[in-house]
Amino acid sequence: MISLAMIVRNEEKYLDRCLKSAALSVDEIIVVDTGSTDRTVEIALENGAKVFHFEWIDDFAAARNYSLEHVSGDWVLVLDADQYFPEDFSVAIKEFTKVKTKRAGLIEIISRYEQNGQTMQSIDYMARLFPRGAKFEGRIHEQLTPLMPTVITGLRLLHDGYFQTDKGVRNIPLLLKALEEKPDDAYFNFQLGKQYRGAEEFELAQQYMEKAYELLQGSNPPYGLEMIVELLEIYTIHKEYEKALELAGNESGWLEKSPDFCFSIAQFLLEYAIGTQDFSVIDNIENSYLKCLELGRAGAKEIVIGVSTYLAAYNLAVFYESTGNEAQAKEYYALAASYGYEQAQNKLEATI
């Protein structure tokens, strides 16, 4: 038996979509409401959920653990209301839960967000399918405990709750509380840095990202690469070229593995060339974008969707256009357009 366990509050915009996408995959739906004032509870009941109530105490783990107290399945699927399965994964979920080995299933989560006026998508993996008996810890960005082996399930969720929505109003105070309790927690420092960057509070973003990076020296957690890329991009925004160069040099091993790192290097070098009028790095800019595409062809994983395909191709085309290489610019606009990237298609149509 598989139980879906959720915590919700004022999710009438998303909840029906989420529950309907999971209905065929689970045998029981547990919804814990933390104080909704809209139709959230009604929608949950309409979808056959058992609804419980929990007084919100600024602690996501506490609320999630309360939901886990009410499940009766041997396996638990945890979703947020603003997530949904884009297709029927019921067979895959049931096959995964047939294995008796104690393990947690990692689900790919594709999140849509807005950055610099452009719609972007990122990929993350979270342990959200696991045997009953596990719990969560952490006031926010809660993690599964006890630690158990994780396996990529092949399941995929779409997530759009952060798109054109400012959740920093909720998240930042909780992260600050979490850091009062654990000031040297690298993960909380990293998450707070991300929230401040999203709020365009770049000085605070840099402060917490630098602290996270310092705390992580000698270790390589799953979020380590994302933290390095975020810090490099923050240095680029602040025009802190010396710090960016030092970070890039210290983490140069990622050049052969990560299209996100290569893409950020290219963006930094472009800003550096413009800001310092030092054009000796021009070849490195071109090579960094080309490396993104090479890694993409080799199947390297992305954090931000497109950095190894259409975003790299489009930025390379812009680079070639700015340096007067119209033939190669058109070639890479066409490559970006072949992935369905609308901005590239518009550029091609404008030149015809």
UniProtKB/TrEMBL annotation:
Q: Which residues cross the membrane?
A: none
Q: Which Pfam families match?
A: Glycos_transf_2 (PF00535)
Classification from the root reads:
Bacteria, Bacillati, Bacillota, Bacilli, Bacillales
The UniProt record lists the Glycosyltransferase 2-like domain at 3-89
Q: Which species?
A: Cohnella yongneupensis
**CDD domains xrefs:** Beta4Glucosyltransferase
One GO MF annotation is: glycosyltransferase activity
Q: Write the record's keywords in alphabetical order, separated by commas.
A: Glycosyltransferase, Transferase
- Work out whether the entry's keyword set contains DNA-binding: no
Signal peptide from the UniProt entry: none
Q: What protein name applies here?
A: Glycosyltransferase
EC no. given is: 2.4.-.-
